[in-house]
Design goal:
Length: about 240
């Protein structure tokens, strides 16, 4: 079994190793690069910090971290929580599913009158976290710390695997990456080779553009990589 890994290069290794452990050959073709943005951290008495991606934490410098690690941190996913712990955060509240579940946790744990929230995020975001919290009267400061910048072509290994029809499937982690892949397939005249491979999607939102085309797909039961790799394991066996 041979699968295409589309995650940004900074996240590739963990997925490639996980596939290798399953006996699956991984071909790397990141669809986006994580690019730091210039930002200045506001000085406020933050009630809590919110992140939905590890990249938001990776790009904080030590001085910024020093002012945040003693605040409660709300995040999605065990790997983000693990990184936060490594960086020095002590009060980490995580939900393994998605940002909607994280919203529920925040609303149950915090009160709007107890101070502002800091939301560290990328330039391109899915979900409704900021809007929902503002609807509940929270003061929330959005700070864009990175951009997931689209690449303009697939790697040569990925393109060759498609042309040779040796590729069995592709892992997709966001709706944006799904649309980027479909665009690159058309641009590089590879769409015809991509109609029969299986698209392993992190969520229904990720799968949406593919359903419209009728492409073969599998959707993870829970929106995390563990569940996604379970789908691969079942297919491989």
């Amino acid at each position: 079994m041979k699968l295409l890994v589309t995650r940004p290069e900074i996240d590739q290794q963990q997925t490639v190793q996980a596939l290798k452990d399953l006996g699956v050959v991984a071909i790397s073709s990141p669809l986006m690069d994580i690019v730091p943005l210039d930002f200045s951290l506001p000085v406020k008495d933050w009630q809590a910090v919110i992140v939905t991606s590890r990249n938001s934490l990776r790009l904080l410098d030590p001085a910024d971290l020093e002012g945040l690690i003693h605040r409660p941190l709300f995040c999605v996913g065990s790997r983000t929580a693990q990184l936060a712990r490594t960086l020095g955060f002590t009060d980490i509240r995580t939900h393994g599913q998605n940002s909607d579940a994280l919203i529920d946790m925040i609303l149950e744990s915090l009160h709007a009158d107890n101070g502002p929230l800091l939301y560290l995020a990328g330039k391109f975001r899915a979900g409704r976290l900021q809007d929902v919290l503002q609807t509940h009267a929270f003061e929330i400061s959005l700070l864009e710390v990175y951009e997931a910048r689209a690449r303009n072509r697939l790697t040569e290994d990925a393109a060759n695997a498609l042309r040779e029809r040796s590729l069995d499937g592709v892992l997709l982690y966001s709706e944006r990456s799904c649309r980027l892949l479909l665009s690159l397939l058309e641009r590089e005249e590879l769409a015809e080779f991509a109609k029969t491979i299986i698209y392993y999607c992190l969520s229904e939102a990720v799968a949406f553009p593919l359903r419209q085309l009728g492409y073969p797909l599998v959707v993870a039961k829970v929106a995390n990589e563990t569940s996604l790799l379970d789908c691969v394991r079942l297919s491989h066996n």
